[in-house]
Amino acid sequence: MRKSGDRLLLATTTRDHRPWLLLLNAAITTTAGLLLPAALAGAVDMALGGTFVLFTILWLLVLAGIEVVGDAVGIVLAASITARATAWLRRRLTKKLLTLGHPSPLAAGDAVSRVTGDCGNAGGIAGLVIGFAVTVVSSVGSVIALALLDWRLAAVFVLSVPLAALLIRTHMRMTADDVLTYQEVSGEVSARLLDSVSGLRTIVAAGIADRETNRVLEPLPRLAAAGAGMWRTQAKMMWRAGLLLPAVEVAVLTAAGLGVMEGRLSTGDVLAALGYSALGMGIVGQMTQLTVLERTRASAGRIAEVLDTPAPKRPAPQPSNGVIELRNVSVGDALHDVNLMIPAGTFAAIVGSSGAGKSTLAAVLGGLSAVDAGEVIGDDAVGYAFERPALLGATIGRSIGYGTDADEIQVRDAAVAAQVHDVLIRLPQGYETPLADAPLSGGELQRIGLARAIIRDPEVLVLDDATASLDTVTEAKVDKALTTALPGRTRVVVTHRPATAARADLVVWLEEGRVRGTGTHQELWTDEDYRAVFTGGE
Fold it and tell me: Which of 136, 273, 298, 466 has the highest local Cβ count within 10 Å?
């Protein structure tokens, strides 16, 4: 996973030209920073010598100005690159998650954590890497500058390099596992929390808030242990770096002082040596960013894990003119060896007790779920409506036409067919009412979901409990309107209501993931077990 993550970070860094602008700006700024101590030394020697050279002062001011402006430009460029890279990663990851389909291999909260937090972390890789590169170049340049002043100064400084390298290597080795664990456990907590928020009313009604709180917070000790491990490593690194940096500066300063006493160096050279030693040890000062780098790599690994997940194999839709056929279809533990043929234009109802596999069968019929075995022959022009539709778009009208080029008339016609037009025109701004300002009941939301399916003019319409919140009278009106709006189309409805099953041309009775029987409602009603599906209750 780490190798895939590193490849992803490389692709993120090189995907457009802007990192090179940041690198160019960093090169100019770093050059100015390396020249600045020498220019300052020249100015000091000039002042101590009682002379005045305008060029020396101007040169010092130019270098200082370049460094200040370059730092400001670098901050803006880094922020822009990070934002663009984060958006690119989020688009890729979101597209992949949609490709993986339903059911997702990730818990909802974990997917959200990867799309938001992990992409945000990995998106900053260009600025992070360039920052490290600048620090390394500054350190090497500082050693060269010290050598040009006096080889003895460079020799004293170089003695600290093995200690700095050991410090960096130890920090990265000790941090890697804790950072990855922290990221993974954070995603687990997010997944549990999102599950709890989604089922909040059920939790409160069942009086199990304390138990659910304990379930959500159960991973916290592992999260705390990983966090504490990172802080302990950081603390060790900080005090060691805090001792190493001044020790190196004192050693270089002592050597420079000896050089002044022996006449090899000037007073300004001592100041330059002190500046170059500080620049050279800048890589030690950057070690706090090593934790950020490890977090970035861990985040990239979690993103790459999803991107590398093979998409489920879905057979290419075959033109069927509304006919749907399943041959020996199995899906995990939900469906087993299902053979089913729904003729074109048929109104089919799927019934069964809780856990019978109704929603899974509907997903397969609608092309939303891959199969583990068997063959699915169906139409690719499918409309789908759910029990709890998620509305997307800025306004109510656009939520109905979401993903289509439908105009206002088509949106209104779809709403009329779904029996929700009268509700929408009473909203504050009618169809232009923002979603956040539209107080809608569960039944009204379902009807908007139906309108969204209708507007696509599908050959096959799949309703997964999409009328469960409607009363039987309204449901009958919707059924009649659908027959008028989509004449001759195949309709598949998951239902718990005997009245709906009675109106269907074909009832598919599921039991424990297998087709127990097919036929009309009246034909199946003679079976006591079939009657128990409705009277035994879900």
Answer: 273
Q: How many residues does this entry show for the chain?
A: 538
* Cross-strand pairs, 324: 342
Q: Counting Cβ atoms within 10 Å, is residue 76 exposed (0-12), middle (13-18) or buried (19+)?
A: exposed
pLDDT tens readout for residues 226-260: 888 777 776 766 666 666 677 777 787 788 888 88
pLDDT by residue (tens digit) across 407-461?
899 999 999 888 889 889 988 888 998 887 888 887 888 888 888 888 888 888 8
User: Which residues, other chains included, contact 396 with Cβ-Cβ below 8 Å and sequence gap of 6+?
Assistant: 424, 427, 430, 431, 432, 433, 434, 435, 438, 448
Residue 264 region, left (φ>0) first, then alpha (ψ -120 to 50), else beta? alpha
* b/e 80-104 (16+ beta carbons within 10 angstroms → b): ebbebbbebbbebbeeebeebbeee
Q: Cβ distance 419 to 466 under 8 Å? A: no
Location of structure tokens 């999409």 = 466
Which residues have CB under 8 Å from 316's CB, separation 6+? none
Written as one letter, the residue type at 393 is G
The residues facing 351 across adjacent strands are 509
**Would you say 388 and 440 are in contact if contact means Cβ atoms under 8 Å apart?**
no
**What b/e sequence results for 43-63 when a residue is b if at least 16 CB atoms lie within 10 Å of its CB, and e otherwise?**
bbbbeeeeeeeeebeebbeeb
The angle at the Cα of 25, spanning 22 to 26, to the nearest 5 degrees, equals 85
The token pair that represents 290 in the structure block: 């090593």
Amino acid identity of residue 91, one-letter, is R
pTM over 0.85: no
CB atoms within 10 A of CB 267: 15
Tracing tokens 């990239």 back to the chain, one arrives at 300
Beta-strand relationship, 373-377 and 324-331: antiparallel
> Per-residue b/e over 132-156, b at no fewer than 16 CB within 10 Å?
eebbebbbebbbebbbebbebbbeb
User: Could you give the residue ranges of the DSSP H alpha helices within 281-336?
Assistant: 282-285, 288-307
Distance of alpha carbon 67 from alpha carbon 31, whole angstroms: 9
Coil/strand/helix, residue 374: strand
Task: Report phi then psi at 371, rounded to 5.
Answer: -115, 150
Residue 176 CA to residue 418 CA, distance in Å, equals: 55
Residues 449 and 389 sit within 8 Å (Cβ to Cβ): yes
